[in-house]
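Sorry to interrupt, but I need a hand with the structure work. Please put the record directly below this note.
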Amino acid sequence: MKEQYDLVVIGGGSGGVAASRRAAEYGAHVAIIEQGRMGGTCVNVGCIPKKIMWYAENLVHELNEAPEYGFDVSVRGQDWAELKRRREAYVRRLNNIYENNLAANNVRIIQGEGHFENSNTVQVGDLSLTAPHIIIATGGEPKVPSLVGAELGITSDGFFDLSERPARVALVGSGYVGVELAAVLAALGSEVSICVRYDSLLRSFDEMLQQAVIGALESDGVVLNWCAMIERVEKIANGLMLHTEDQRSVGPVDTVIWAVGRRPLTASLDLNNTGVLCDEDGFIPVDDYQATNVDGVYAIGDVTGRLALTPVAIAAGRRLSDRLFGGMSDRHLDYTNVPTVVFTHPPVGTIGLTESKARALYGDEVRTYTAKFVPLSYSVSTRESEAQIKLLTRGEEETVIGIHLFGPASDEMLQGFAVAVRMGATKKDFDDTVAIHPTSAEELVLMR
């Protein structure tokens, strides 16, 4: 059977859904193809269930500090299975919301795996879909390294399938996933180790943030194994052992979690039928307008190998549909100054350039402002943790080119300041803003 559309989207994650709905709002006839649950990584095995686990982690810390506020409470255990049940129920609700929203926009949902017949035709089972515009939004999946015993570990996807909390865990990798899951598991009572490939973690972040997260993890009992290149995983009588290339061992542990990056889901698309090029890792290069090297074929989100963040995929998808169907010929996503957060305890927030990158680009034009302080919420507790803030400016105008936050509410604090950075705010603009007291956010407008 053949069907004709204005737009076909392959992938029902956040980016694909956003592009589909925006196009349909302009009156386009749209079909979206998804072989799994609607919502992609973020909804099912990413941001949403991860943040729910972070809330559980945060509750543990708050309950532990409650007696210092005079409350007669203690943490007497945590029901992992109950939390999982409630978390999965919420995810299913979101799956339904995504499907209902698409239906409300008259987007046809096609369940199955899409394969290209040519650059304007996608085959799903016996159905052949033709469109002048096709968006690839298939996302990615966690990598599993090629080493002996790798199959004994799980990925972040497997973490959300765990029916009970493992008592002893080793995470391999120290990016977003590695440090976030380590913080969750440590707070909920697991013994946690991280195998860090290099001599620092979160390597794309400002050094201040790297050191702050290291301190926070270690204070929560997480063991950091530096420069630990895993060579093999071995099953022994009382668990799993990880062995490094330099003859060190980590373990025994009950669970190994691979957090070594993600790979794009492009292998099954039959891109060779289209002429669309991939790089050596399978990612699809695109230009500033999300266009591939083949007319009428576009790619958005994680599959492009650019910033692998849900809001980036959504923004790119909406802007692409604005351009294709909304008459906005120059509409595209600006990938500079994208804010991001790491949900450790406390969280990290960052936008713009790191100090090392800023100085490499602008040298002596860069001025750095820093602040360390004990958050008011810790004022009556014995928790020894400082919040840290760094603000970077450039030139005589002191345009703000970087903000780096570590401390309670950094995740919520960053969004408004990200708007200011995008608008080209200067240090004087910050100085001229009246502070909100008492807050952590006020430190950003009081720095000298």
User: Anything to note?
Assistant: The chain is about 30% helix and 25% strand. Residues 371 and 443 are 7 Å apart (CA to CA). The chain has three domains: 2-142+263-325, 150-260, 346-445.
